[in-house]
Please model this.
Amino acid sequence: MSTHVPMLDLHRQFASIREEVLPAVERVCTSQQYILGPEVTELEREISAYIGCAETVACSSGTDALWLALLAAGVGPGQAVVTTSFSFFATASSIIRCGATPVFADIDEKSYNLNPVSVLQAIAKARSQNMRATAILPVHLYGQCADMDALSAMAAEHKLEVVEDAAQAFGATWGVGGVGGVGGNSHKAGALSKVAAFSFYPTKNLSAAGDAGCVTTTDPEWGARMKRLRNHGSPKRYLHDEIGWNTRMDSIQAAVLRIKLRHLPTWNAKRRDIAHHYTHLFQQAGLASPQGPLVLPTEDPRGYHIYHQYVIRAPRRDDLRNYLTEKKIGSEVYYPIPLHLQPSLAYLGCQAGDLPETERAAAEVLALPMFPELREDEQETVVGRIAEFYS
Ligand SMILES: Cc1ncc(COP(=O)(O)O)c(C=O)c1O
Model:
């Protein structure tokens, strides 16, 4: 029985693919082509085939991917983008970097994703303040797609673009009728709207050996424009049609990602097995609500959750976390301070109490160790320590 359990152990993943990764990195070094180039082009082609989209634009981070996606969707100064406050900072800062204003809607208490009713209210609020709402930016938090049926219908009715923040959801799907997230009417995150952003930050379920990200789009023209924007708005050397930036991807990142992409379906399936095993162990220990203190994650039957994180709601969350840290069990809080209460965004004029479900989640959620190589005995240790805390 293990005593220490890490939140994430990337050494185990590397050990399992070392023999594939090192020759791929060597291939790039031998080519001496370090930025964009054939590895990046091949990665873009492979991601487009996997996601089922027209174009993929590889870039230097998930943050840059959001920025490119928002620009492609026509977001600019004076406009409003409706999004969630329960996310990583880049969700809001990328909107601001386009010159626009984030307008926050509240989340659904079960999925932690945007609540469509609150989105409707946020659209009305933006309009009442004479802002032109241009887009809705849902985040597929923890690896589960937001309610894309409701959000897409709302966007169509109000003539808004949808920009998915799929940073945590590579391989997740939405739409009924498929088996294991494949087939039926199901589509992958990244092909559920015209444009979507992914992060390959090392802790993500598909991760690079450094910073990297990509945008997927169903519109080849948007794809072509984003390819120019990521390279200083340049269609050919030293000609600049519009002002872009340097958000190119390195070839070494692409070479590593191409290898990991082949393993991703197995890794995502493993994450789901681990999540279901946690749920079983918590139920067996009598810790799951309504009998027990913990609220376990739920899966929307319309989606394929890839469990980027396994997140519980826990009473006395901070005390529990301190206890687990003392016992050398990893855990994390995604996210302790909602975006609408961040000091740098105070100018937006939001206050505590504005988004009750978001604020309650920020106080109660706890992410537990989750990675495909996590062992069953380690899961038993995690659940055992949590049982001890509440006993
Ligand atoms: C929801 C979300 N959006 C955006 C990002 C930004 O991605 P990156 O760190 O690659 O810039 C992240 C990851 O950090 C994220 O989790």
In short: The longest helix spans residues 251-284.
